[in-house]
């Protein structure tokens, strides 16, 4: 019998399992309680993935002789494969009690604990394995994975590096090292590590998919697509790779291909809320809003608490001016934000409700979830003051965008003897005239599209940036993550996002006394830097000489023309109801609006009819070149602002073109911007403090042409004398603010509210 067992064992060791198995079975037929035959049959069962049979064989062997540690270890491995991890740990513990110097059992025990997310215990078990076998590469690699679970990424990286030093061809360790580098924001190094893993033979679809994600984050989109395609070739039913491929195609603006890729992901994995959400985002970006809503609804049905999706859905509805169930949806979002749920970023709420408290809560929740404070780069050492303060502006919008329309002249007006200005750009517009103008205004231009947030923060430190100005907040394309690493000793938010960022690492929010009165400081996580006036402007913007006829714009020749060219999502049911009451009370009047999507006109005309106003009294304007768009304002009589999200750039455009703007001032930042502009141009009579006053002023001006003419005359005079369009004056005030922030920092003082004189 011993000779027969040796024959089976020889075949087993050669990997000839199908030949070894019947020999062990023959031994067992002669001796039903043969310990070694039972054990070896269990080993073959494990090797052939029949783990239930393995557990049975190991159990029978242990019942005969429970003193063999390696059998308990093998039983633990089989139980772990069957996801019976607690039972597996008990088997490993028995193995260790029988053989205290058993590094493999400690390592396997660590694996089971790690799979239960008991990372601290797993780490201790790996350390025990390593203490008994210092050259145990597998234990070091798995230890790194436990450290990743504990978010101790630097230590995890060191553990993987130790594993690789011990075993230079360790492909899995290179793969796991790459995951860790992504967590550390070191994307280029992660890609290199994935490449090494692949060169060592780890041709797994998961590796190519993850490599593609890193490439996409770096903006290397064609390479990312190739990596996703490789993953799909290796695993044709890989839904996640199709979904990620859709993201890269979306970034490349290949909308139809992106949606087709999402559709393929959904066909392979119909229960994937991620794919439906991503598909919805792509459809929304390309203004296919009704399809986006349907995709979001699928995601919500699959996962009702999907992060920040309810807010995105609400905002999409607002873009369409589809108010069906609006109040109920808004109430649900507000209630969940109060409870701390991750249902909406702050941005959708700026237009939906006038509550600075809710805006703050939503922003804080978003930052904690998406861009929490990160100390990976350490504290910035205090620098010796230089002659020039280095101010860097960070934006995805250095091009044909309202942010650049407003700030171009400011960038040109900075005092170059006292300030050195740097543009940190992560936008795609690199060809427009506005982009070229803005780029020329800076002392240094840095394109960081291919760098991670951490790498951009480190670059900012290397450049010696003193003051970092974020021009995006949580708007499209913005990168709050850069500031989470502390890009500069002083960090501030300005103009791109009209509210608090909710970020503990943003020190200052630039505003003025109108937008954020002292009584409302508590609604902002930043200290408020009160400028003499809030909005920078471009006093060189060109208005076309073209004169638009009423007929050309589809307007009645003798009608009073109210207008509003704000984005459609800013039109709330309450704002629209006010407008309809104004139209009903004003004979022979129309409302000229801008439609930024095909759905809004249909919904607004229907809503007008429901409120007793003929739909044809709403006229929709098309998109025009910027100089002609400004000239078109001259065809209107009065601009009716939205609330709670006011006109910003559109308000200053209208005022620059000579058109009075009527606004309703609320409580939140976004609801007070137009009031700030009107204060800066000395037209306070156009600021209403209640809905009733707003309607009364509109009716008064529409029915008394002489009063409107006087306001237009004052506007024409004030345009060139008051603060709103005096860009050099604004620049001096802003620079005084920068000096004040910088002086506090150099004096070792914490950020505090700062007031700059008029």
Layout: helices, strands, pairs:
Blueprint: H1 2-13, H2 17-30, H3 35-47, H4 51-64, H5 69-81, H6 85-98, H7 103-115, H8 119-132, H9 137-149, H10 153-166, H11 171-183, H12 187-199, H13 205-217, H14 221-234, H15 239-251, H16 255-268, H17 273-285, H18 289-302, H19 309-320, H20 326-338, H21 346-352, H22 356-370, E1 389-395, H23 402-413, E2 419-425, H24 433-441, E3 444-447, H25 453-462, E4 467-470, H26 481-484, E5 490-493, E6 508-512, E7 527-531, E8 560-564, H27 573-585, E9 589-594, H28 599-610, E10 618-621, H29 626-632, E11 638-640, H30 649-656, E12 661-664, H31 673-680, E13 687-688, H32 691-703, H33 705-718, H34 727-746, E14 754-755
Parallel strand pairs: 1-2, 1-4, 2-3, 4-5, 5-6, 6-7, 7-14, 8-9, 8-11, 9-10, 11-12, 12-13
Helix pairs in contact: 1-2, 2-3, 3-4, 4-5, 5-6, 5-7, 6-7, 7-8, 7-9, 8-9, 9-10, 9-11, 10-11, 11-12, 12-13, 13-14, 13-15, 14-15, 15-16, 15-17, 16-17, 17-18, 18-19, 19-20, 19-21, 21-22, 23-24, 27-32, 32-33
């Amino acid at each position: 019998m011993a000779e027969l067992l040796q024959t089976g064992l020889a075949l087993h060791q050669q990997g000839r399992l199908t030949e070894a198995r019947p020999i062990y079975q023959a031994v067992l037929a002669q001796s039903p309680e043969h310990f070694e035959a039972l054990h070896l049959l269990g080993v073959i069962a494990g090797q052939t993935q029949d783990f239930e049979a393995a557990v049975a064989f190991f159990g029978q062997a242990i019942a005969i002789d429970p003193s063999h540690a390696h059998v308990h270890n093998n039983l633990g491995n089989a139980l772990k494969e069957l996801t019976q991890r607690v039972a597996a740990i008990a088997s490993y513990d028995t193995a260790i009690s029988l053989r205290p110097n058993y590094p493999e059992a400690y390592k396997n025990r660590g694996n089971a604990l790690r799979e239960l997310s008991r990372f601290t215990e797993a780490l201790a078990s790996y350390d025990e394995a390593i203490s008994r076998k210092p050259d145990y590469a597998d234990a070091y690699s798995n230890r790194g994975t436990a450290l990743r679970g504990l978010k101790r990424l630097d230590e995890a990286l060191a553990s993987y590096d130790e594993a690789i030093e011990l075993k230079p061809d360790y492909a899995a360790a290179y793969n796991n090292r790459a995951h860790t580098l992504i967590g550390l924001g070191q994307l280029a190094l992660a890609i290199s590590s994935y490449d090494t893993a692949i060169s060592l033979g780890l041709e797994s679809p998961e590796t190519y998919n993850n490599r593609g994600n890193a490439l996409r984050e770096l903006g290397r989109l064609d390479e990312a697509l190739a990596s996703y395609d490789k993953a799909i070739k290796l695993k044709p039913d890989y839904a996640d790779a199709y979904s990620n491929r859709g993201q890269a195609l979306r970034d490349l603006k290949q909308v139809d291909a992106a949606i087709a890729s999402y559709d393929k992901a959904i066909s392979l994995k119909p229960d994937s809320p991620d794919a439906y959400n991503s598909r919805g985002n792509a459809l929304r970006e390309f203004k296919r809003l009704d399809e986006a809503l349907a995709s979001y609804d699928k995601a919500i049905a699959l996962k009702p608490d999907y992060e920040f999706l309810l807010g995105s859905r609400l905002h999409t509805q607002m873009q369409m001016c589809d108010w069906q169930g609006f109040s109920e949806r808004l109430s649900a979002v507000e209630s969940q934000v109060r409870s701390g749920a991750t249902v909406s970023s702050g941005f959708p709420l700026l237009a939906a409700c006038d509550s600075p408290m809710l805006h703050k809560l939503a922003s804080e929740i978003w930052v904690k979830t998406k861009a929490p404070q990160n100390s990976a780069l350490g504290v910035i050492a205090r620098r010796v003051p230089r002659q020039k303060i280095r101010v860097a502006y960070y934006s995805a919008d250095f091009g044909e965008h309202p942010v650049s329309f407003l700030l171009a002249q400011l960038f040109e007006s900075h005092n170059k003897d006292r300030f050195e200005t740097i543009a940190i750009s992560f936008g795609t517009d690199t060809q427009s005239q506005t982009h070229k103008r803005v780029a020329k205004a800076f002392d240094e231009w840095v394109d960081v599209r291919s760098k991670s947030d951490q790498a951009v923060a480190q670059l900012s430190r290397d450049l010696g940036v003193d003051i970092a100005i974020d021009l995006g907040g949580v708007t499209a394309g913005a990168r709050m993550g850069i500031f989470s690493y502390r890009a500069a000793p002083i960090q501030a938010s300005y103009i791109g996002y009209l509210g608090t960022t909710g970020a503990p690492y943003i020190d200052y929010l630039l505003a003025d006394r109108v937008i954020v009165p002292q009584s409302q400081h508590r609604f902002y996580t930043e200290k408020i830097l009160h400028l003499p006036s809030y909005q920078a402007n471009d006093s060189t913007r060109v208005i076309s000489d073209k004169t638009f006829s009423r007929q050309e714009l589809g307007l009645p020749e003798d009608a009073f023309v109210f207008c509003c060219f704000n984005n459609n999502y800013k039109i709330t049911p309450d704002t629209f109801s006010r407008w309809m009451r104004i139209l009903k009370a004003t004979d022979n009047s129309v409302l000229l609006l801008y439609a930024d999507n095909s759905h809004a006109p249909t919904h607004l005309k229907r809503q007008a009819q429901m409120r007793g106003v003929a739909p044809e009294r709403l006229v929709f304007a098309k998109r025009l070149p910027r100089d002609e768009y400004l000239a078109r304002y001259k065809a209107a009589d009065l601009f009716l602002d939205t609330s709670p999200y006011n006109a910003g750039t559109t308000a200053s455009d209208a005022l620059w073109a000579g058109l009075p703007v009527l606004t309703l001032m609320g409580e939140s930042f976004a609801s007070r911007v137009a009031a700030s502009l009107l204060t800066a141009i000395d037209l306070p009579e156009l600021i209403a403090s209640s809905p009733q006053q707003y309607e009364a002023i509109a009716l008064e001006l529409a029915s008394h042409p002489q009063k409107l003419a006087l306001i237009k005359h004052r506007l024409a005079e004030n345009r060139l004398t008051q603060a709103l369009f005096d860009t050099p004056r604004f620049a001096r005030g802003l620079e005084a603010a920068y000096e004040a922030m910088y002086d506090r920092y150099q004096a070792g003082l914490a950020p505090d509210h700062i007031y700059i004189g008029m």
